[in-house]
Sequence to fold (515 residues):
Amino acid sequence: MAALLVSAFSAQAEVPGQLGALGTAKLQEETSIQKAPPSDSKRVYVMDPGHFQMTSTVYTIDGKNTKLLGMVDAGKLPHVMVAGDGKFLAVASTMYSRVARGKRDDYLEIVDPQTLEIKADIDIPEGRFLTGVLERLAALSVDDKHLLFQQFAPSPGVGLVDLESKSFVKVMDVPDCYHIFPTAKQNFFMHCRDGSLLQVSYDNKGNTKQKPTKVFHAENEYLLNNPFYSNSINRLAWPTYEGKVFQAKLSESGAEFLKPIEVFTDKEKADKWRPGGWMTIAYHKGRNELYLLADQREKWTHKLPSRFVFVVDATSGKRLRKLELKHEIDSIAVSQDGSPYLYAVSAEAKSLFTFDAVSGKQLGTLDELGRAPSMVFVADK
Amino acid sequence: NEAQAATTGNLTRSGFKPQDKDPKACDYWRHCSIDGNLCDCCGGTLTSCPPGSSLSPSSWVASCYNPGDQQTYLIAYRDCCGKQTCGRCSCVNTQGELPIYRPEFSNDIVWCFGADNDAMTYHCTISPVVGKAS
Fold:
């Protein structure tokens, strides 16, 4: 029998080394590896950190058809960043040599959005800030040439990675500030404990100049952990626990603070409408609309999911729509094209729900997305 | 009761309603700002880590109301580290929980700083009392 098999497969030119000719059958059909279509404005990524698990999954999804295109593996509490033009995906991860112990290794992977192949694997110091993942604790620069990641311990810092030379440069010292909001010409802003922003400009070697803005919110106005920020228009929109949205336009010449918006009426506030979830705010550039994920809730329940999205004009604060999603949603994002979709992810349902962002009509569902998918990312342009 | 290790008393939008009878339930009063897994369900206790894990000396804190004696106590949540996430008795409460720029009250952070062997991987959390809150 063995001799028969060998002769049957002898026509195969190359066979996998570990298997030999024996198990390599000649097929009647062509087999291949799929390639995803080019990234477009409705490409969306869902990240499942699995409640602090050692490995995570990034789901690559065609938002138009709510179709899963493929997956990217990541380590513990990874940061996912989409290049401005959607041309690559960057994932900053942490792994250990023996599952959850042993030698720690932090690294940055650059992923091709069509083949999902790893185009670069860049070693970084073991200093990533491990938290329930906050979107802006790591960021691509506006020109996608640098990557910046936050360090918390032993002291606050921002790691600088040069993506062109595929090398780590330096951890730049910063004061007691958090989040990274890049602007042009090698600048970024952070939000500091004292209620100001800090502007940091840096050169290619990681030398910095730093300048604080005014204090823009009171000590008892708590800013939720995941603001909206756009690398392309440098617009920051940041809700408080009570639904007041602070906004700023950032540039290399400084921060321009806009008039804060109250999303809820006094009556709604009395009825306990508050934002809640994980990524609670999105913004559509073309329509100048802010989307806030909210529900009726007691104080101090700000991380529980919500079932509604309030849409307001980002300049006047005027209420435009109130969308009822009818699911327990943790995070939202909005595609930036002319007929935008609202993407909503639910850890409880382990699903991504797609809605028409204007009508609020549900268009699609993608289920079985890991253990606790909680974050959603779209291309900025 | 190990048979009931699946978390009970999870936080809802109607708020945290503490009880003082079952420390393995999510609504036990000391867990008012816990985020992760209760070590009591993972081989540890309310104040001790499971075997083989590393106890972190760093913590975030919260003031939790004890309905048993109507007093409020400061709880210093310490993580047990160096193992995969326990997964049992998952629990997220956020009484007085503040954003990341107020890290002493922020429970999203992996509070493993200072654990033996530089263990920075999250396994579970214990809820020891530091003292009375005023």
User: Anything to note?
Assistant: Chain B touches chain A through 37 residues (CB under 8 Å).
